[in-house]
Amino acid sequence: MCESHEEDGRFEDVSIGFVGGGSRDWAGKMMTDLARQHTLEGEVRLYDVDQESAEQNARLGELIQDREEAIAEWDYRAVPSLADALSGADVVVLSTQDPPAETFAHDLDIPAEYGIYQSVGDTVGPGGTFRAMRAIPQYREIAAAIREHCPDAWVLNYTNPMTVCTRTLYEEFPDIKAVGLCHEVLHVKEDLAAYVEKHRDVADVDGDDLRVNVKGINHFTWIDDVRFRSEGVFDVIDAELDSQLPLPGGFEPGDLDGETFYVDNDQIALDLYRRFGLFPAAGDRHLAEFVPWYLNIDDPQDVQRWGIRLTPSDHRIEHWPTNERQRERHLEGTEEFEFTDTGEKMVELMTALLGGEELVTNVNLPNRGQLSGVREGAIVETNALVTGDDIVPHAAGDLPEQVRSMVRTHVSNQETLIEAGFAGDLDLAYRAFLNDPLVTLPPEDARSLFVDLVDAERPYLTDWNLEEATVLEA
Amino acid sequence: MCESHEEDGRFEDVSIGFVGGGSRDWAGKMMTDLARQHTLEGEVRLYDVDQESAEQNARLGELIQDREEAIAEWDYRAVPSLADALSGADVVVLSTQDPPAETFAHDLDIPAEYGIYQSVGDTVGPGGTFRAMRAIPQYREIAAAIREHCPDAWVLNYTNPMTVCTRTLYEEFPDIKAVGLCHEVLHVKEDLAAYVEKHRDVADVDGDDLRVNVKGINHFTWIDDVRFRSEGVFDVIDAELDSQLPLPGGFEPGDLDGETFYVDNDQIALDLYRRFGLFPAAGDRHLAEFVPWYLNIDDPQDVQRWGIRLTPSDHRIEHWPTNERQRERHLEGTEEFEFTDTGEKMVELMTALLGGEELVTNVNLPNRGQLSGVREGAIVETNALVTGDDIVPHAAGDLPEQVRSMVRTHVSNQETLIEAGFAGDLDLAYRAFLNDPLVTLPPEDARSLFVDLVDAERPYLTDWNLEEATVLEA
Amino acid sequence: MCESHEEDGRFEDVSIGFVGGGSRDWAGKMMTDLARQHTLEGEVRLYDVDQESAEQNARLGELIQDREEAIAEWDYRAVPSLADALSGADVVVLSTQDPPAETFAHDLDIPAEYGIYQSVGDTVGPGGTFRAMRAIPQYREIAAAIREHCPDAWVLNYTNPMTVCTRTLYEEFPDIKAVGLCHEVLHVKEDLAAYVEKHRDVADVDGDDLRVNVKGINHFTWIDDVRFRSEGVFDVIDAELDSQLPLPGGFEPGDLDGETFYVDNDQIALDLYRRFGLFPAAGDRHLAEFVPWYLNIDDPQDVQRWGIRLTPSDHRIEHWPTNERQRERHLEGTEEFEFTDTGEKMVELMTALLGGEELVTNVNLPNRGQLSGVREGAIVETNALVTGDDIVPHAAGDLPEQVRSMVRTHVSNQETLIEAGFAGDLDLAYRAFLNDPLVTLPPEDARSLFVDLVDAERPYLTDWNLEEATVLEA
Amino acid sequence: MCESHEEDGRFEDVSIGFVGGGSRDWAGKMMTDLARQHTLEGEVRLYDVDQESAEQNARLGELIQDREEAIAEWDYRAVPSLADALSGADVVVLSTQDPPAETFAHDLDIPAEYGIYQSVGDTVGPGGTFRAMRAIPQYREIAAAIREHCPDAWVLNYTNPMTVCTRTLYEEFPDIKAVGLCHEVLHVKEDLAAYVEKHRDVADVDGDDLRVNVKGINHFTWIDDVRFRSEGVFDVIDAELDSQLPLPGGFEPGDLDGETFYVDNDQIALDLYRRFGLFPAAGDRHLAEFVPWYLNIDDPQDVQRWGIRLTPSDHRIEHWPTNERQRERHLEGTEEFEFTDTGEKMVELMTALLGGEELVTNVNLPNRGQLSGVREGAIVETNALVTGDDIVPHAAGDLPEQVRSMVRTHVSNQETLIEAGFAGDLDLAYRAFLNDPLVTLPPEDARSLFVDLVDAERPYLTDWNLEEATVLEA
């Protein structure tokens, strides 16, 4: 696939197209990852609808490369068009986001007016649904451009809603070599490593020391097997659960007010494990949104009892300006750029795809058997072997009936959104919205919420046929 | 199959075993149905755990036969054991109910304490789940007795939860000739007939004049085709919907206080039609319980906005004594017994099964293809040809994705309850409980509600392994 | 659907488009059927690529109408185009055939040169495969014309290969109201009626007195239930089998030389029943072609041991001229036209579809659940309720594993032929050809046979991409 | 799972139970493999129904260990019972065979009398079917003993018919950790490596240098992707095919008379590739038996045209005595034992399972999604990750329609044989026999062949209910 040259296990002239290259935080981390390794060198072309921001990142990239910690050589260039980013790319990285103040903030605030509180709001629930509705037309366009400019490139998608974005890429361009990537499972492996240390009395266990069998859909994957040095250690979860009962425990509303918004105490994961017998492999803030129970609260503070906080829209709105200001300080030299890596497997993954060392990790791909009991073609998350120009998913087996039922509800909604998005059929999207477990509102309120969200985000829904949508009728 | 003799289109010596023969209202109606027809004659053996009540019904049967309106000859006999009722039966009728004060009242009241209001409470939701949990052991016993005493008899089940009871019969005795019967679809056909009259300007349209394609699970079946005199008239539903918009319309909390508890104004059916494009074929009180939206109310009176009332537990508790007192008055002759038929197709159905006139009607049977997209073996409701010693379901086709998703959630729960009930596994039943759309409670409340219900109905859960149930642990 | 008027249970002004209206035998029978009944009257427009022959049939139709036995009034008109036949049609009848000397004769003779003998040659095997390959483009054209000229008409297809022709209609025009009709099951019911008479010692049992559960694909359907007056009488097949053992019995090569080519002694049906436990519902001459065993003979005469004859190509070639000469004599008045009906259910079926008396009969329709275990959309044959403007298939259940395996092989081939035919992909068609159970030839011979057939029938394969077919390469 | 100790990447005290430990050739090779590696040491307990032969092998093992080439230390011990071999085993190796003169010879000779020639006769066809029928009771017994004595051991099955033997193990003991292993795919990778060398002009390509995606059932697996250094090189097969056309080429009957019986010239593999577009991953002698074409010959010599020979029964009969005599010479010291390895991945596989270096290789396991389009639970062959105490199959995707159809026919037969074998139902086994593609005999001949085989192998069919088998009736 790749025009890059391998020399002594190193790949030179790797060409990366970065769509969403104006990214205010993720770009910096990716550039750090690229700088701090030995195997890949080449060029990154940054494209963003906000070209200014892409150019800032190009300058930041140069600054990073100038640091002495930088090992590999990378050139960064902001480009004015999608075509420029994609042409000749070996790898395409997708990490885009609409302006939070115009979108994400509404995704959170408007449902909250109706009593629907979302801990993240980017995957399922009303927020995730509208994020999907906005993303489908955008990702169709990206897929079409990839088909035109670099059909053989590997496409690494980091954008949420992961499942719907990746599914859109395949629906538009079935031969695309795209994969959806997410670090939630990696974080959970770190948690499990800590359980192993604690309950098996061993030291220095790392997430990478564990092998897990993971299966489900992104942010709602499940683990039914954990191995440490060939030994099954799934029972450490029972031990941890016993040590934490009763659940939820020890947190009262307000206790977490000073904490980061991303605080996570495994309360929900352990509670779901207790109820369903499999351990969910995503952070509690994501898990909470897939089922109607944890966010069924009258006061948003109540969610703190489960050891998590809601992320307020203010924080989302401030995210961009804050990061922009920091980037400026980095570029001005008034603040030193900190080398923090993404925690992602991106470099290992690119290396493997280019023909370097193989890797087994969790990925999001169209189902071709890896998740039994779920329809073929739906985007599912399981382990896979990443190897030279190929990703081969593991056959992870089936889910227990009751977990499968929950997963299937979301798969059904995601497939419905894809069908609706490609047809521009808002009424069909509304059906997926209604079937979302967080949408337990009385019918008129559900409709009103949906209409309010459409109205607030109308500029981002231009591809939808709003004129003929009966749900918008008085 | 049948030892009865056919003479000139009449079947004599038909032997019916009635399990639940002490029934306080349904028995009277069935006996009326049997009296007021020309094709079937024979004997009914009434068995009930409350033998006294069965004997009262036997006397009531004689009284009915003495009436001049009685056409066919039937003997009624209360028998002391299930074996006595079943031995030699051509047809077995199942219509049982646990004492409402000890069961049904709890099914309604305890969830209400947690804010879960149920309009009926006998099919899904917390009430339907516990009714299922009580019924499974009972219906296993009945199925085993049928296998022993009358394996070739046709078994007509009228007991709710229809799906779980019928599924239990087949799980215990796969060769049973059982069918679940329900009049909800018949009532909906009457409603549709009224729509045809109104919007096509024709007079005297009866439900039986329409042919509908019906598919789903009992109390949550859906119609996608309506024919009147060969003509497709599905569009009358659009016309009716237009005439009723906005939904819900015209009802305020309190408006229905004086009405029967069974009042139904098609508001929910039309609203579901509007959202999902198929017309649901059950009363609104049933439909409301399958989805989380209509009963998501703070004040129980609020449900009146949808043109229905909740049936309070008082009414359920009073149901038996009221009917018993009336039966006594009938037997004493202080009140005249009114000939009101069941509105069921029971006589036509028995006649067809015995070899008389064929019939197409809706039935509940294990899926063998009649409802595409739903697992084989699950009990589904579609039309079927009822003919001599056979019932052949129609292949009703598939459901639209989003309706199928809702139906499958319940099928998953029902299958889980069957598995749990046969294993006595309360923790597994709890998973079905949690996955019920009405159970959106915060986790600890959900668990607490489940435990409360177990405690309240413990005498009816003797077959369950309560000792090892972790859900009951502190 | 229909513009015809119903008066007193009679339908007037029924408009029938007959494609293949020059048919040399079937047309006469259909016209007889139409004349000899009370419920339908109207017009038949005869279209044929051989317009002369259609005109002869129009004259024959008038002659039939002039007979005193003619009850219903029908006008016959030959029309010059498909559009003329279809426009305004309530019902379309399809019964076409390519000139036997140029096609059917090759289908039989060329395989015979390779030692593949076919008893009929119109359904599967090399002959059926090439008939399918010729028919697919033709039936695409017909389906497209129906979509244009009479999309609401009911289309009754009588053309073989039944499955592929009907499947083509649906593939081209998914909303078509088409059904494939075949009398083989009806004939088998007559055989079964004779078994009932013989082994139950009852008189005057007619095929219509039996109810059978039939399932499979056309000419390879299977019966697993037979009812007579509500009673299961499947055991008469065992009795008949016992009376006929050993199989095959009593026939030596040459014994049937003087018999009709259509002779059938149930030897193969009973043998298949003995091996697989279900009774096949098609004539032995058809059944023999679906499995590799009965026609695995060195001398064509050997097949007579199974009580059947091969139909020689001479007979097929002579069929048209013979029938043409007879039609001329009928028209000249030198030979009296004999009123023989088709034995088909066509009139009853049209009547039911127009809104008259309902009918349950076997039909070929896309699978939507009626044959469990076989893919959705494949054309399968089961019973169905034929009613006003609708045909509702029965859910016939599953087949035993080993029968299902045989059926699936043919379904796979038929679906492959459809895919190949719509793509014009001859290499893909060749794969279906190779997978046919009759094609057990050594590989080079198989290829050579395929090429010979393509060469012989090249004028009828114009829609196929022969240039790029690697199978045709030296 | 394992009691063995790991020291510096070496595993000591590995306990292996070898069932079929009297094996006359495979044992020697396995012992060689064990001797010539550095990672595993321990004990092998040899069990065989022919205890004498097991003891000879134990002595041979000692002799091998005494050789200076022997690196790892292994103790060999013949044990008198299955229990002795299994108790405490970390790994169980299964490699059994019935005495060829009493079984295998009949499997080949009796069908040949009916004109059915088999190139191997151990997988499908009449021979493979009877081998399966003999093996099922034996492998049930082995599985039951494993459940009792070493339920956590890994079971490596090398016995044919691979699919049926492995399936039997799982049917009897669903929690067994068994895997079926076969070197055919490894050999095909060597062939492909040679193609790469030839058509890409590179030197020293080894089978292990290629990555293939393999899927199907043992001896009838298919490759749809070949990678060499990350590059897709599937096109070398086209190049090779072009260079070999026309097929078959260059071999006339008799040409191979002097060759080994195992000669293979890729003629059939390339021919199947040409027809179906996927490359079959087994030797031609195996492939020929799965389809009716290549062995449809009048003279057994004719098969040489495809570059293979039939293995005559003489050779099979002589195999044991020849090997026994050689083993005696080895033990007497009159002939030097040659160190030839198995070419199997056994040592690597055991090492990986014990927690050593991971391995991706082809394995036979119950389908849980790895082969889409084939029923769950059937034994399928795909790649898998072999790791510490676990084997995780790759999701290999689907097969093209026409290949899937051929594969499914065999899966259906294999599942039927399992059902038949567990029920002792000979008539059901006969249905599988009839549906085998090689059984194209006229019906009476098919029955006669089946009966002859039953009669010849009656001592090995003791678990079958022969008394009630109608196929054996006159």
UniProtKB/TrEMBL annotation, chains A, B, C, D:
Record-annotated Glycosyl hydrolase family 4 C-terminal domain positions: 214-439
Key words, A-Z: Carbohydrate metabolism, Glycosidase, Hydrolase, Manganese, Metal-binding, NAD
SUPFAM superfamilies in UniProt: LDH C-terminal domain-like (SSF56327), NAD(P)-binding Rossmann-fold domains (SSF51735)
UniProt-listed Pfam families: Glyco_hydro_4, Glyco_hydro_4C
Keyword NADP: no
InterPro entries per record: GH4_Enzyme_sf (IPR053715), GlycHydrolase_4_CS (IPR019802), Glyco_hydro_4 (IPR001088), Glyco_hydro_4_C (IPR022616), Lactate_DH/Glyco_Ohase_4_C (IPR015955), NAD(P)-bd_dom_sf (IPR036291)
Listed GO biological process terms: carbohydrate metabolic process
UniProt GO molecular function: hydrolase activity, hydrolyzing O-glycosyl compounds; metal ion binding; oxidoreductase activity, acting on the CH-OH group of donors, NAD or NADP as acceptor
Required cofactor names: NAD(+); Mn(2+)
Record has NAD as a keyword: yes
PANTHER family: 6-PHOSPHO-BETA-GLUCOSIDASE-RELATED, ALPHA-GALACTURONIDASE
Family the UniProt entry places it in: Belongs to the glycosyl hydrolase 4 family.
Name of the protein: Glycoside hydrolase family 4
Naturally occurring in which organism (per UniProt): Halorhabdus utahensis (strain DSM 12940 / JCM 11049 / AX-2)
